[in-house]
Amino acid sequence: MGWTKIDWACGHSGEIQLYGKMADRESKAAFEAGRQCMACWLVDQWEQNSDPRAKREDRYKLAAQIAEGKSKRIKVADAVPLKNDKASLMAERDKLVARIAEIDAMIEEE
Ligand SMILES: [Zn+2]
User: Could you give the CA distance from residue 107 to residue 96 in angstroms, rounded to a whole number?
Assistant: First the structure.
């Protein structure tokens, strides 16, 4: 039992708590290193689900706090500027347009 250092594929590093036999811990550590960290995964989920937390500059910090509760310590920046590149803005715009269409449909049903 103990904390094992991990460098995740997303570029974040930190450590996770692993239990069990040495061989099991090594394969679990290798599995973790081959994918994005839990903080990145959570932020992706928030973005996809239009969760308001995705719009906070401290979103990675929030996600890392949740990960800490799952025995994963991930070093992240306190604040990460929101993405304002064209692709992100277009994705945001598409979501809003879809929402407006939903609202229009509800109004027409009145
Ligand atoms: Zn990450």
Answer: 16
How many structural domains compose the chain?
1
Note the pLDDT of residue 82: 86
User: Distance, CA 105 to ligand 1 centroid (Å)?
Assistant: 39
* Per-chain residues with Cβ under 5 A from ion ligand 1: 10, 12, 37, 40
Radius of gyration in angstroms for the set of CA atoms belonging to the chain, rounded to a whole number: 19
pLDDT tens digits along 71-100 = 999 999 999 988 778 888 888 899 899 999
Which pLDDT does position 92 carry in this prediction? Answer: 81
Domain assignment present for 54: yes
Could you tell me if residue 40 is inside a domain? yes
